[in-house]
Amino acid sequence: MTTAQQIVLASRPNGAPKPENFRLESFDLPQADEGEVTIRVLYLSLDPYMRGRMSDAKSYAAPVPIDGVMEGETICEVLKSRHNDFSPGDIVRGRTGWRTMAVLKGDGLRHVETHGAPLTTAVGALGMPGFTAWSGLKFIGQPKEGETVAVAAASGPVGSMVGQLAKLWGARAVGIAGGADKCAYVKDELGFDAVIDHRADDFASRLASACPDGIDVYFENVGGHVWDAVLPLLNKYGRVPVCGLVAHYNGSSTSETDRLPATMSAILRQSLLVRGFIQTEFAPDHFDEFLSDIGPRVASGEIKYREDIVEGFENAPAAFTSMLTGGNFGKLIVKVS
Amino acid sequence: MTTAQQIVLASRPNGAPKPENFRLESFDLPQADEGEVTIRVLYLSLDPYMRGRMSDAKSYAAPVPIDGVMEGETICEVLKSRHNDFSPGDIVRGRTGWRTMAVLKGDGLRHVETHGAPLTTAVGALGMPGFTAWSGLKFIGQPKEGETVAVAAASGPVGSMVGQLAKLWGARAVGIAGGADKCAYVKDELGFDAVIDHRADDFASRLASACPDGIDVYFENVGGHVWDAVLPLLNKYGRVPVCGLVAHYNGSSTSETDRLPATMSAILRQSLLVRGFIQTEFAPDHFDEFLSDIGPRVASGEIKYREDIVEGFENAPAAFTSMLTGGNFGKLIVKVS
């Protein structure tokens, strides 16, 4: 019998999650049935959406039960296969959850294709975050040449792709990030036209100055006070794809006034489009198109990305909780083995 | 020299407008220049959007200046014409503002076409309110057969058309209205599948019961507490055309909590589309299509409408201020002469 490790949800967080909300356990790996594959996890992707799974508040997906294994996507090596599509040594993506090994149905796995870019991009620039940026911008944001696209968490895996795609498609990219290092990266490395530090006291007026023609597309992945600064800048027929609200995940607003009327009034006044989405809406029909469009650009370095790779499976909880307050810099990935 | 009457904005309202915010005046009608038409106003349309024009808060249109004539659309008879397209006796729609007579450029006028329905429908069921309903539902709401469409102010000119179109296009129509009389009209006369009185203490739970399969399209024309009850009922991929927020027009929310996070979370969780619009976005390309589609149905009685016609130009301010709190029943129109 093979023993592996997993991380389960020990308790639901009250506000910001702490490492104590998780528990590291050993478990006995079952034997693979016909159609199943035994895999060893190489990399675990840590993503903001996982915060939602820790809570039993209404969400777009069911919560992880207490004592249940945390959900997550991983890059794995096939050890043994009882499925025709996979052989030992194959590299696959799968939803193993936070585990070091797993036995999964082969039908839920996908061979990793990165067009020559490093394996880890399969959960970053060429995975769910990159595809979230590409599909949300392409199908909802629809930037036209010369328009202004703004995005927060601009040094992160979604935001960095949004801005680079905006530039690629002929628009102006304005990034919002937290701290001088991230801002410098967004401007100097990623080539955004402007970047604003959301921690600055005069953040709202700086953002306005950086968007002299207003904002045509705001790619919403954080919520919170960034939204308040963006709202008055949105142009007529502005589009707002909403893929995440990380500023809200740890609890409700600290505002003592009702901010809804201002938002609804702006939506009416400016004929805005606000559209929530999860990338799974577009993936079945468009993921392959994304990969063949963006894969070679990532492999060649035309599109840049940054990863924050943490060593050691046992460090996943601390890395995850830090990420929720901006403690990482780049796509957060745990190197498991 | 001919003398006519006009109503100007005497002062900006602080909260709910009062008749004292208006002033009735006489003015000397100018002579028509080449290309202009002298017209006599038969009917003045009173509409909620006019509340926005009284305020100097940011809006989608410039405010009426103090001492300026209130804006508005009217149905008029041509008295004298110096424009080739118009002859004395023609019935036209025009933006004269709140006036009994006017001299306007002929290029801004439009012959009234009602397919045999009464003239007044040109500012109601077959005018701006009807077209708002038709275009918002057709291009944004896009109800599919069997889906549930909910609309507030369901006895009003926009809401009544939204529900009837929803039925015509194969969806289920749930109306929200204020008071037993309006509710009975919506259910019994307009043929909505269900109607809920928003003044009921258990309004939210009644609305939920009336929408056992949730809400696929919520046509937003009021805002306020109706939105709070609708929000948890919206289905995945729900659509929310936003054409008005009459509950907000007289001042900001009375909520002491921030309602924005719940709205943004629902948008994300349910992949909602929220889209503000003004009917002028669609009118140039689609008004004729609307008129030929809906005109004959209104004329034949297949699509029903109700008008609240107030006699006497001088009564416009009181009728308008009452409408903003639901005091009218049907499309509010002032019979001027």
TrEMBL record, chains A, B:
PANTHER family: PROSTAGLANDIN REDUCTASE (PTHR43205), PROSTAGLANDIN REDUCTASE 1 (PTHR43205:SF7). Keywords: Oxidoreductase. Residues 15-334 form the Enoyl reductase (ER) domain. It comes from the Bacteria. InterPro entries: ADH-like_C, ADH_N_2, ER, GroES-like_sf, MDR_fam, NAD(P)-bd_dom_sf. Pfam families: ADH_N_2 (PF16884), ADH_zinc_N (PF00107). This is NADPH-dependent curcumin reductase CurA.
